[in-house]
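Let's do one together. I've listed all components of the complex below, 1299 residues spread over two lines.
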Amino acid sequence: MAAVQDGQLNMEVEKDIKTEITNDGSGNINANSSSPGSTSSGGKSKSPAGSGEDQQTLLAVLQFLKRNKLTESVDILRREAGLSADADDSPVSDSAGAGSGGVPNVSADGGDANSLLSRVSIATPFAPPATAPPKVVAASGGEDQPDVNVVLSAYSQQGDPVLYPLYYNGLKKFIESVLDCHRAELSQVFYPLFVHMYLELVYNNHENEAKQFFEKFSGDQECYYEEDLRILSSMSKKEHMKGNETMLDFRTSKFVLRISRDSYQLLKRHLQERQNNQIWNIIQEHLYIDIFDGMPRSKSQIDAMSGSLAGEGKRDANKAKVFYGLLKEPEIEVPLDDEDEEAENEEGKPKKKKPKKDSMGSKSKKQDPNAPQQTRIPLPELKDSDKLDKIMNMKEATKKIRLGPDNLPSICFYSFLNAYQGLTAVDFTDDSSLIAGGFADSTVRVWSVTPKKLRRVKSAADLSNIDKESDDVLERIMDEKTASESKILYGHSGPVYGISFSPDRNYLLSSSEDGTVRLWSLQTFTCLVGYKGHNYPVWDTQFSPYGYYFISGGHDRVARLWATDHYQPLRMFAGHLADITCTLFHPNSNYVATGSADRTIRLWDVLTGNCVRILTGHKGPIHSLAFSPNGKFMASGATDGRVLLWDVGHGLMVGELKGHTDTIYALKFSRDGEILASGSMDNTVKLWDTLKAFDDVELDDFTAATGHIHLPENSQELLLGTYMTKSTPVIHLHFTRRNLLLAAGAYNP
Amino acid sequence: MAEERRPKQCTVVLPTESMKAMAESIGVGQLQEESCAALSEEVSYRIKEIAQDALKFMHHGKRCKLTTSDIDHALKLKNVEPLYGFQSQEFIPFRFASGGGRELHFYEEKEVDLSDIINTPLPRVPLDVSLKAHWLSIEGVQPAIPENPPPAPKEQQKTESTEPLKAVKPGQEEEGSIQKGQGATSAEAKGKKDGLMRMKPRSTHELSVEQQLYYKEITEACVGSCEAKRAEALQSIATDPGLYQMLPRFSTFISEGVRVNVVQNNLALLIYLMRMVKALMDNPTLYLEKYLHELIPAVVTCIVSKQLCLRPDVDNHWALRDFAARLMAQSCKTFSTTTNNIQSRITKTFTKSWLDDKTQWTTRYGCIAGLSELGPDVIKTLILPRLTVEGARIKAVSDGPVVSNIDKIGADHVQSLLLPRPTLTVSQSGIGGSGGSRTASIIKVPSSLTLMSTRPGTPTQLSPPATKYIVMATSSGSSSTQQVLWMASICKISRTLKLSSSAVANSAVDMMKLALMRTATGKGDPELPLLQRISSLELPASEIAAQINA
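Okay, and this is what the predicted structure of the assembly comes out as:
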């Protein structure tokens, strides 16, 4: 294994990019890179959470490592932790299971973890070699029996199965009888209780009772849990629980409820009076009740936030400060002479670089107080061509149309014809000169949408004949014979689900069902690197707005941060409880947002690897994300056809846009952020007035502190326009620098 | 607690029979019932699991249709060998067979002859993926081009025209219903204000160059001389989904066209224009209600105008009147609401001019034709009571001194309209179309009547009450044959009763009234034996026709 080597490599990088974290980071690189066995070790070492359980968790990790014959890691970890050799023989219960069942939300707790553990979690991303079996997360069929049993151990204690419905009914009656203001809050308990009681029954082989229980009470659950209930209902035997991801999710992650103190007291008193230990046990063991002081929340407030696989995000999880401001733009002198025409001609050239969202550049000469330090994460230096491109961009920006409710953008729709249902992903370059499509037949196709054709660089032999001093050397290196409007890139062995252009238009990333992310050169139109590590389908990938870094996420529930010149990930963001369905960089490149099939959105700090926001409220898998150009807000779209708006700084939901009737696959803010465009499977593009949406939200200190917000019911007023396509689902949207909206989708006659 | 009761989560399990069948198919003979049950449960669970995963692939593939490759990928996730050879794009139907108390569903796997495959020419290479750009919207307005869906679906056109207050921005009607109860009042008030402010239609009435060309071509073809072209143009009007924008122009074209050509008595053009109206009505994507104010006057003109052609004594303008009357009836049926009251207004117009003594015979004919198309109720309440008066009038014309040839012809047509309606229906049932599809050249009485002689019905079936007569005449073909027979019988009766031949028409009407009274009083048929005798005479068709025309 090349683990040690990797470590060195990583350290070199660290030096290279002069990161601040060298102290912590490099120290741990050793610790972790020497544990090459599997990603599991990464997952494991991340699992420790609160400081109280640290010791025990650590032991669990040690035991796991030992079992997997990773003696080296064991030694190192032990040394680091200062444990004696015999300590790890103590019984391990919970945490081993936790590790096996998908990495629990470590990073959420990262903030309060003690120094050692936080260091561990920082370092872990460097660890796993590409060949590691993805045991951690997917809880595949090959999962060892013992681990599952550990996971399930909590269910071994059992009451009389016949009494379960009675218990549940009793609680139901009680909750129905309490005061209105508490009822909505306490009703939240029903769903997790129901699930755990059902699972207990199934686990203890009371198949019929379980079925009856399910039939009796499943109808009471909120309709947005339907998907999960369907999975539950199919699980009727203990054997089924083995390797079932959903089940493991329920078990390994505590369902988080937010309940006001008054309501909680009420519930507690009731249960204790009734000696209802069965329910009390479940609440204690499997639920995490986040108690807050103040007014109980209303039904609509609760409904807005609930719906995720594991309840709401804990309030603590969203406390960390997020530097959502934009980085200062490097000052480039804009030549004010009339070179416009010339510039126009050069526009299509695929050799200039341009970081995204710098349209705000001219405005923000001062450092934004909310912005991260310029050097918080090392960014690639600007090349000359990048500067040229920036100038271009600024020029274009001056011609930008100011959008608003009275000035809607024009929409140009790019239809993919004859795609035979095979179009799976689309991306535009920032300057809108190229369009790329990923297809189910494993190909990636790139089109030029300007008259400028796509050309390949000449072969090495031919290149050597070129006069390198000539002025038009960049022209000369291109092979005229290869000029064509589109190029096909072959290399993947499965449908291509994610695609992303680098900001400088030199590279293209694609992620595929085959578990790889590939980097393609748009100069030679060949594959440069295949990034392996996911091993399961990679649903999405995205370049950083500054280039160099990229993020990928997939079925293995771990998002990985990569740098293009490393074949191993720099960070691994683990914590989602189901597939990561979409990924996105924050405009300042310091944060990464991931949307997941567990119906949560998480925001990760690229520097520390911590999860800094958990946003709940969607009722279906999230398929699209978008940051506003100022970095302050985020929009997300899910299969439930709703768009939710978030305040990133406060970690709050600030709006809900209803109108679509099917999955939203595309979201994009206009260049100035006034308008949000959403594209959906229901064959429509809708435009929303985001300025108004953000204005309408009143944020006082209380709501900011508790996160209990009253959402204005104003989708109707915010909707500026709906545009039907002709049986063409909209799967990508893009605003050109002049605020023309481009949309793309495959025509399905 | 739950916002809405969802359909019950059901735990569907494969039948144990299937397990047995499958076991047999792989050579396991005797399978215990218990193991079957266990197997089926396990298999069902696994299948569900795989289906769930396959759905993921479908979602990420941005499709709404699950494909075999999704299943393959899901199997791959589970480390299961994918199923090879199930790459079919199309739906593969299950075949069903039963026998020996067993029911089997299976794929039909055909044996394929290799040499056949080799010898068949290669199929065409499928077209390569290509990229095409079009404007979905230009500054907030969706242009009406073929790449875009028809700008306003019929439903929306309907709401727009019938309930303008509810008409909102295009495509927004579905959200309207989502308005939450909470704060609905204020939101609604706002929405109304919004609606009022936005009443002005947001779609412009400028036509693109292509649309202008199209409009020119179509209108020229419709009124031009080439019948083939006209057919094509009418076909296009009747089927093209993108005509919404051009509708106002078409409507004006027709109304102006009628206005001019009525003055010029250009029958052919009027007919063409009416055919355009018909085509517009037939177009499933158009909702004409907004343009009725132009179309209805045009149509009504074609029904009741005093003169529609240069030589009213020779030209068959009656056909045009009939045709337009049917159009009128159709639009009444489609667009009449309690607010616009089209049907009653039209009925009033017709009745008024019919009742007027000074009305020309042509107009009279039109009014009656128009009324008679409006349905049994109208016929019953408006036409039947007037039959005697009308009969007298006809009699006056045909018996009295010859005033003018035109009046004579007019009276004849009115008479034939009142008399042989059923025969028309017969001839029509032969053509097989509904009221609207009748050709403009309606075959008149005599030839239709010949039908009768070929089918000597039994006059005993006279019995249907006379009130029903008209109803049936307009409704069903077969029963109307009987009515024809009856009608003819009446004529013959009048003959045998030695009534003056010139008064046949009048007497026929009287006979009808007689029949009415008779059935109303519930008495038997005094003429019955007589009728039987007449029918047994089996007169030749021409003779009967002659009798009626006499």
